[in-house]
Amino acid sequence: MSDSNRTGLSFFLTGLPGLEAVHAWLSIPLGAMYVASLAGNGLILWVVRSEPSLHRPMYYFLSMLAVTDLGLSASTLPTMLPMYLLGLREVALDVCLAQLFFIHTFSIMESSVLLTMAFDRLVAIGRPLRYGAILTGRRVAGLGLAVVLRSTGLHVPAPIMLKTLPYCRHRLLSHSYCLHPDVMKLACADTRLNSAYGLFVVLSTLGLDAVLIVLSYGLILHTVLSIASKAERLRALHTCVSHVGAVLLFYSPMIGLSMVHRFGRRASPSSRVLLSYLHFLTPPVLNPIVYTVKTKQIRRRMLRLFGSGGGAARVPGSRGLRQREKRQAEVAEEPRK
Lowest-pLDDT range, 90-104, 165-179, 307-321? Predict the structure, then answer.
C-alpha cells in the first residue's frame, strides 16, 4: 500500500450491536462512569498526597493504581464517548494505533501494579518487622519505574508492526475503541508474526502476573494459617480484601472474554462487547470505591474531608481518640505472626 493511500486510511468503530437507536442515551451512563473514574481516582491521589500518615508503601502502590486507572479511562474516552454521543464512528489509522498502544500499555501497567500490591501484602504479613526495611522509598520508586518500562517497552513494537500492514476495504472494528487483535485481523497480509508477538506479550505479562499473584496469596494463606490467634488471622486477611477485590475486578472480565472468544462461538456479539467494557471501564470506576469502603485510613480521611467543616476535630478528647484509632489501624495493617 502506498504512503498516500495509507495517510487517508481509517477504521470504523462499532457500538453495542442491536442498540444503535439508543446510542445517544447510552452516552449518559458512559459519561457518568468517566466522571466517576476521574473524581474517584483523583480524590484517592489527593488524599494520599495530603495526608502524611498515608505516605507509606501500601498507599504509594494505591496511588500507582489510581494513575493507571486514570490512564486507562483516558485511553478509551477519545473514541468511545464521541461515538455514542455524536455518532462519530470513523477513526484515522494513526489515531487508532496510538489508542491501542495506550490501552494495552495501561492495561499491562494495571496488572503489574496489582502484582506489586500483592508483593506488598506478602511482605506486610510474612515479614511485618522488616516491612519498612524491605519496602524502602527507593525500592518503591524502582518498582514503579520497572512497571512503566515493562509496560511501554513491550508494546512499542505493536503499532509499528501494524503500521506496515496493508488493510482490506472492510475496515469495521468490533469495538468502540482500537485493540491490537481487532486491527490485526483486518489486514490483507500474513499476520502470524504479529499474532505470535501479541501472544508472547499477553503470556509474559497478564498470564505471568496472574500466576505470581496466585502464588503470593498461597504464601500469604500459609503464613496466616500459622498465626495462633484467630483474631490476628482475621485481621491479616482483612488487610487483603481491597486488593483481592481489585484483582477480581480486573481479571474476571478478561478471563470471561477469553472463554467467550475460544469456546463461545455461538455467543452474541453483544456479550463480547459488554465483557470488553467490563474489563476496561469498571476497574477505574470501582477500585476507588472498594479501597475507600474497605480501607479504614482512607475512609476516615474521606469522612473528615466531607465532614461539616471538620467540626469533629474540635470535640474535646477527640485528638486522643484519633491517635488511638490511628495506632490500632497501623497494627491491623501490619499483623505480626
Answer: 307-321
Q: Within 13 Å, how many C-alpha atoms sit on residue 189's CB side?
A: 15
DSSP 65-101: HHHHHHHHHHHHHHHHHHHHHH---EEEHHHHHHHHH
Q: Would you say residue 311 has pLDDT above 50?
A: no
Rounded Cα distance, 132 and 30, in Å: 41
Which H helix or E strand runs over 106? Answer: helix 93-126
* CA 244 – CA 246 distance, rounded (Å): 5
> What residue has cell string 469533629?
312
Note whether 226 and 337 are within 8 A (CB).
yes
* Contacts for 211-215: CB closer than 8 Å, 24+ residues apart: 212/115, 212/118, 213/114, 213/115, 213/118, 213/247
CA dihedral of residues 57, 61, 66, 70 (deg, nearest 10): 130
Q: What integer is the mean pLDDT of 81-89?
A: 88
Q: What pTM value is reported for the model? A: 0.86
Cβ-contact 295, 44 below 8 angstroms: no
- Given a contact cutoff of 8 angstroms between Cβ atoms, the answer to whether 42 and 70 are in contact is yes
Question: Could you give the count of Cα atoms lying within 13 Å of 268 in the half-sphere of its Cβ?
Answer: 6
With residues binned 3-state (H G I as helix, E B as strand, rest as coil), the percentages for the chain, rounded to 5, are 80, 5, 20
Q: How far apart are CA 171 and CA 153, in angstroms?
A: 28
pLDDT in tens, 51-76: 888 889 999 999 999 999 999 999 99
C-alpha cell at position 334: 501490619
Residue 196, CA distances (Å) to 35, 90, 161, 248 in order: 37, 28, 12, 27
Can you say whether the dihedral through the CA atoms of 76, 77, 83, 89 is positive or negative?
negative
CB 189, CB 165: distance < 8 Å: yes
Report whether 172 contacts 165 (CB < 8 A). Answer: no
